[in-house]
Amino acid sequence: MTAAVTPDQWDSARRTLVVHVVLIMRLRSIREDQARAPALDVRQNGEHLRQMPRFAFTSIPFEDNLRVDQLVRGGVPATAFREILALLKIDLPTLADAVRIPRRTLERRLASAGVLPFDEGDRAVRIGRLLEMAVDVFEVQDEAARWFTEKLDVLGGASPLECCATDAGSRAVEQVLGRIEHGVFG
Asked: Per-residue pLDDT for 95 more than 80?
């Protein structure tokens, strides 16, 4: 006996398929661009880093953990934090406090447009992954950003952004998002 598929399940499957197709097309485009790019000369003293394109979390295949791991190990551009600032509509001191990076250090990272140290890059990608998950749950970017920056009792009075400073905290945020998505609020 087969179970009937509801229209909501079909819509969900269709949206997932569309997202995967878009990601595959973006990855192909990135690979083609990388293949055409000239090899970097190490004597450029970081000039290639200042000319880096804007970082976009939407280009990260978060469902592929090994690819995300490779991205973090390869170096996340400092502009990732600039994108977080824009997406969450918060100021730099608020972000610096939330991710436990001294404000002046974060300012220097953004000014240099270099690559983030491993732990900071991991934090940035962690925030991006959970923010994308929040957008999927709330279906509106502004609503997800508002939720991501407000203090929640279920997170011990911390905001989801503040919880992203640690792996355990980010797992708690992921669990809360899962509960919201499935209608379990208590």
From this structure: yes
Closest CA to 81 of 61, 51, 101: 101
Residue 59: predicted pLDDT? 62
Q: What are the structure tokens assigned to 26, written together? A: 């973006």
CA distance 123 to 144: 18
- The vertex-111 CA angle with 73 and 134, nearest 5°, equals 55
Q: Give the phi and the psi of residue 22 in degrees, each rounded to 5.
A: -65, -45
The answer to whether residues 139 and 93 touch, using CB atoms and an 8 Å cutoff, is: no
pTM score: 0.65
CB 102 within 8 A of CB 96: yes
C-alpha closest to that of 68 among 131, 128, 135: 128
User: Do residues 60 and 128 make contact, with C-beta atoms less than 8 angstroms apart?
Assistant: yes
pLDDT in tens, 111-142: 887 888 888 888 888 888 888 889 888 888 88
Q: Which residue has the tokens 């974060």?
A: 106
- Residue type (1 letter), 174: E
DSSP state of 76: -
Alpha-carbon span 30 to 107, nearest angstrom = 28
Which residues are within 8 A (CB) of 172 and not within 5 positions of it... i.e. 6 or more apart? 155, 163
